[in-house]
Amino acid sequence: MERMLLIAAVGSVTALLFRNEHRGFAVAVGAVTALLLLLTGLTSFSGIAKTFEKVCASYGVSTAVLSAVLKIIGLSYLTDFGVGLARDAGQNAIASNLELGGRVLILSCTLPSAIALLETGMTLLKEAIP
């Protein structure tokens, strides 16, 4: 965590120093800082994935469900990262479209689970009502 704080502080100060005179350079510094923060954060992701695997194994949850959940989490973080970069660069239209695209991708990932849940509910209702 300390490494991330140091990267954020150095990147923010550097971007602030160049913001008024060299806007393009400040945006590039911000993008590189954000990328370094993302890569630093991803190093701890393997521990999170292993924890998810242990929980799924102990409760008998399918690895397909785990894969879908991790994919959705990854998509949401990457979308947020891209939207932040676009907004920092002053590209609000791109940021808005990226948000919409990310939501559509996340929805497409959740559809199989939602359909399976609906099918399970319908099966239970058919069994409960003679």
Describe the structure.
The chain has 130 residues and is an all-alpha fold. The protein folds into 2 domains: 43 residues; 85 residues. It contains 5 helices and no strands. Helix 1 runs antiparallel to helix 2 and helix 4 packs antiparallel against helix 5. It is elongated and about 75 Å long. The model has no long low-confidence stretch (mean pLDDT 83).
Summarize the structure.
By secondary structure, the chain is mostly helical. The chain has helices spanning 2-18, 23-42, 45-59, 63-88, 92-128. It is elongated.
Rg over C-alpha atoms, rounded to the nearest angstrom: 21 Å
Shape: elongated
Helix/strand/pairing class, anyone?
Answer: mainly alpha
Q: What is the total tally of β strands? A: 0
Q: What share of the residues lie within helices?
A: over 70%
End-to-end CA span: 58 Å
The DSSP helix count reads: 5
The topology string of helices and strands comes to HHHHH
Mean pLDDT: 83
Low-confidence stretches: none
What are the key terms here?
130 residues; mainly alpha; 2 domains; 0% strand; elongated
Q: In terms of topology, how is this protein built?
A:
Elements: H1 2-18, H2 23-42, H3 45-59, H4 63-88, H5 92-128
